[in-house]
Fold this sequence. Notes:
The structure is a single chain. With 302 residues, this protein is α/β, with parallel strands linked by helices. The protein has helices at residues 2-23, 92-100, 146-162, 184-199, 217-225, 248-258, 272-284, and strands at 27-35, 39-46, 56-60, 70-73, 83-88, 118-123, 135-141, 170-177, 206-212, 242-243, 263-270, 294-301. The chain folds into 2 domains: 24-123, Beta Barrel (Elongation Factor Tu (Ef-tu), domain 3), CATH 2.40.30.10; 128-299, Rossmann fold (3-Layer(aba) Sandwich). The protein is globular and about 55 Å long. This is NADPH oxidase 2.
Amino acid sequence: xxxWVVGPMFLYLCERLVRFWRSQQKVVITKVVIHPFxxxxxxxxxxxxxxxxxxxxxxxxxxxxxxxxxxFTLTSAPExxxxxxxxxxxxxxxxxxFNACGCxxxxxxxxxxxxxxxxxxxxxxxxxxxxxxxxxxxVGAGIGVTPFASVLKSVWYKYCHDATNLKLKKIYFxxxxxxxxxxxxxxxLLQSLEAQMQERNNAEFLSYNIYLTGWDESQATHxxxxxxxxxxxxTGLKQxxxxxxxxxxxxxxxxxxxxxxxxxxxxxxxxxxxxDTLNKQxxxxxxxxxxxxxxxxxxxxx
Length: 302
């Protein structure tokens, strides 16, 4: 038995040593941004840190807990000179981080007073393959929208730098959330992308739909009254917020009809139930003919 055990144990110990060494490297918090509804953005720098879109890191703040490590998706793009995470305050550890960063104080916080942070990673996810397709469907549910902040930022940087060499030609983005106010920072990113694409006369590059699933009759009535306004009353975007859940069968059939003969990447960050639905639709709407349309499903669950 020991012959079968010693090899994997040696590899495991090597991996733990590498992770311990990486976690001891110095991390500098360059900026702390407070977003609405108790969401903070930490912008950090670390020597030798290299990332790809959609990856995640483990974060430890010794001032809050000397042992706890928590995973966070990177919301910055590889083209930026820093890496960032967005943290929503929903528990004891995040509350402790919020206070340690001085976000509970009114006065300006000096950089040297910010807490020490340990970072392990980054670690890869399925979202890294987004640039391998010409057509992609990005589906984020709730907090699962965070990896696509990195993806959309990187797409914009690549588009501005050299659009002719960018293989990606069309993005269909779906955001399902119970309360958009909890992620106003992401709506701001969409607003910026929307305006910049219109300036370049390529508004069709990004097609997005926001579905508010936690709605009631009063919200629906308010939505109907303001539907004719130029911008959405909830997000401030030109695309109106939709209520309920998308009809995935219709969405897949529409996209398949618009892009015959294409390989379409479907990327999800969301719950297992939604993953099963999208995987099933990807199979149903893919043609047997190799020259036909094919949906390639990729997922990461939480």
